[in-house]
Amino acid sequence: MRLPTNHLIQRGPFTHIEQIREAAQQNGETWFDADTMKTHGSIVYPEVYGGYWFVSSERYRGEKRRHYHARQVNAYGTVLFAGGTTKHSSKALAIKAAKRAAGVTP
Prior knowledge:
By secondary structure, the chain is of the alpha+beta class. It is built from 3 helices and 4 strands. Helix content is 27%, strand content 21%.
């Protein structure tokens, strides 16, 4: 159950994906839950860029290849979807996109 806005625990900026997972769990987010990750065939990579960007990959049902995404979270560990996410053909391209979005020089 997601906490009411006035009860959310602020944790960011983050330096490692486990900090994001912990903040998300404490604030009732389900994006990183095992069932959600399994449903989407998700893998989350440990590096965090600029405190709020990370890379995930998904293998959608019926597809053989993975899709890689640069994802943004807020200080509460909520994965933001404003504007959608671009599918990248490789982890390297998604990392490059995450670094660029975070203002981190490659």
